[in-house]
């Protein structure tokens, strides 16, 4: 059959492939590539373009040119059944990754196992409900002899009642008990791909070390792995909602222990002991995070989110994934940011008419008044326009207070990219709250001397601000007093004015290293500092007064720490908020709003 005839035959099969999923299924025609595409698959579905792609050269090479309806319907299933879209694909991959934690090269196998799970759900539905010949398609495809593939084939034999040996190799050991469990798993989670993904990964994990990872063998089994085979998402694309979804990081349950699969009361199943909680060590900058047993749910860590996106083939850096993670987690904690009266709002007032001349805006002509003056319209002679005056209004315009945010990224602070850091999340809450109110934010990450990065000025770009929040140096601790001075006091060397343009709130995210803010007025041993000049003369104190927007120190220290008493006389005027856990973050949000807004007169908002 010629390439043109093959393309026509597959195009004619498209309506039948859509009908396999119901009479109301609509999707535009597939893209039939006559030239080789080098996609390591003969068929794939693009979630970005929402379209099916077929490599006809690969179809001929693999000998599946007589099964257009089955192949096309399978690809439509990646849109309607599993995964469906980028977010669902990330959710499945996240659960698969949890199930593969004990397997070697876990991240390298997430894409394959995720796609296998989706394929099994789709194929079972097409064979059982739509009556398509998926058995014939499997016969046409080259079938590897490794244990994983034999498990998949034996599972299909059980699901479709074909009997042993129809799809499996007769001279290869077949994991019968695992196949029975897998068949029950597929039927139990037929409409819940995310729910069964972790159990499937646990089931196949022991077979992965023996898997021949030859790409040719793998491609022969994959009937188009959607996102895994080909990714059309732009660089830095991160599906929204995955970072905050509870349960994606929960421990996986083996199908043999899953009441939904084996049909026993979950209360009778043996439950493993809870892992020991990580209490953390404040001396090395690690603090407790939510474990698998926490009631708040098991969301992904920033590093886990990046690993999932990388497994899906998305060109996303660790910083981009972390930026999305903190943005989504901060959204529910945003607080009303303070503002100040700026000026009296003026109201427009109708004025008199004046002559409209040639060269003025045509839209300014008041045609009714012009015709009333003369029924014969002569531009520049009889044409008039309305003027507008202004009068003071009864309302006062308000200007949001800008935010000058300093984030400690010394070695004692957790790396926000690697793990959940409530202290960094507090910084994201402040920054995003300010941006939501229309304020400008200057975000600066600092560590040792000359280790400074950030927005380099005030901005309303949320991505630039979040990039500064997740940046990490891991060096020594030395607060950037010169930058604080230039921002609020001006440059004493050049005489340049302050870079801020109005009231500004100064906020510092740090730990006990925040005392370096007072290095210009303190001396003595590091563990017993003393004032060598009045605290009111320090750069931190003078900048706070000049900023005229208040100051906050959000510190990763336990309540009652000795550094808190030192701050009282080192850095007077700053409000202090200890934040270590997620519960502290909630208290910080409410306390911040209460301190800045609780004393406002009623009706002054």
UniProtKB/TrEMBL annotation:
Protein name: Uncharacterized protein
Organism: Sediminihabitans luteus
Stretches the record annotates as Disordered: 232-256, 269-299
Annotated Acidic residues bias: 271-284
């Amino acid at each position: 059959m010629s390439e043109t005839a093959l393309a026509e035959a597959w195009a004619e099969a498209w309506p039948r492939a859509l009908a396999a999923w119901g009479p109301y299924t609509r999707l535009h025609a597939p893209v039939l590539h006559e030239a080789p595409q080098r996609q390591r698959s003969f068929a794939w579905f693009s979630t970005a373009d929402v379209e099916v792609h077929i490599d006809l050269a690969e179809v001929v090479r693999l000998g599946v040119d007589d099964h257009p309806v089955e192949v096309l319907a399978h690809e439509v299933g990646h849109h309607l059944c599993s995964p469906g879209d980028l977010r669902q694909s990330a959710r499945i991959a996240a659960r698969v990754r949890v199930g593969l934690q004990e397997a070697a090269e876990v991240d390298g196998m997430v894409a394959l196992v995720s796609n296998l799970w989706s394929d099994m759900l789709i194929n079972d539905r097409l064979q059982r409900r739509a009556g398509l010949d998926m058995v014939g398609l499997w016969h046409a495809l080259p079938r590897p002899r490794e244990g994983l593939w034999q498990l998949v084939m034996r599972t299909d034999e059980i699901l479709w009642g074909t009997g042993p040996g129809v799809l499996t190799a007769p001279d290869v050991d077949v994991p019968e008990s695992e196949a029975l469990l897998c068949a029950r798993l597929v039927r139990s989670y037929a409409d819940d791909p995310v729910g069964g993904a972790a159990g499937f990964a646990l089931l196949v994990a022991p077979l992965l070390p023996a898997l021949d990872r030859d790409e040719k063998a793998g491609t022969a089994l994959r009937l188009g792995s959607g996102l895994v085979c080909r990714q059309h998402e732009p660089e830095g694309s991160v599906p929204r909602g995955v970072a905050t979804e509870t349960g994606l990081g929960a421990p996986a349950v083996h199908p043999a222990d899953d009441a939904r699969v084996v049909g026993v009361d979950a209360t009778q199943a043996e439950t493993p002991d809870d892992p020991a909680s990580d209490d953390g060590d404040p001396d090395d900058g690690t603090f407790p995070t939510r474990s698998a047993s926490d009631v708040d749910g098991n969301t992904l860590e920033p590093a886990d989110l990046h690993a999932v996106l990388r497994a899906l083939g998305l060109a996303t850096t660790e910083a981009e994934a972390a930026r999305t993670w903190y943005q989504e987690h901060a959204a529910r904690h945003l607080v009303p940011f303070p503002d100040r009266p700026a000026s009296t709002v003026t109201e427009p007032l109708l004025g008199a008419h004046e002559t409209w001349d040639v060269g003025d805006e045509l839209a300014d002509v008041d045609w009714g008044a012009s015709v009333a003056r003369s029924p014969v319209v002569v531009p520049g002679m009889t044409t008039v326009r309305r003027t507008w005056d202004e009068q003071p209004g009864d309302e006062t315009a308000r200007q949001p207070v800008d935010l000058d945010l300093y984030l400690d990224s010394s070695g004692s602070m957790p790396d926000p990219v690697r793990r959940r850091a409530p202290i960094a999340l507090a910084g994201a809450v402040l920054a995003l709250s300010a941006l939501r109110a229309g304020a400008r934010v200057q975000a600066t990450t600092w560590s040792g001397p000359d280790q400074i990065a950030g927005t380099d000025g005030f901005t309303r770009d949320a991505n630039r601000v979040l990039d500064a929040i997740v940046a990490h140096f891991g060096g020594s601790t030395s607060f950037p007093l010169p930058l604080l001075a230039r921002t609020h006091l001006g440059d004493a060397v050049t005489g340049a004015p302050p870079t801020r343009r109005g009231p500004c709130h100064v906020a510092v995210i740090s730990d006990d290293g925040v005392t370096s803010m007072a290095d210009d007025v303190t001396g003595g041993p590091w563990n017993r500092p003393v004032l060598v000049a009045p605290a009111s003369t320090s750069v931190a104190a003078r900048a706070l007064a000049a900023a005229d927007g208040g100051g906050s120190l959000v510190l990763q220290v336990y309540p009652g720490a000795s550094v808190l008493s030192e701050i009282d006389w080192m850095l007077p005027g700053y409000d202090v908020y200890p934040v270590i856990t997620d519960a502290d973050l909630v208290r910080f949000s409410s306390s911040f709003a209460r301190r800045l807004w609780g004393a406002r007169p009623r009706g002054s908002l």
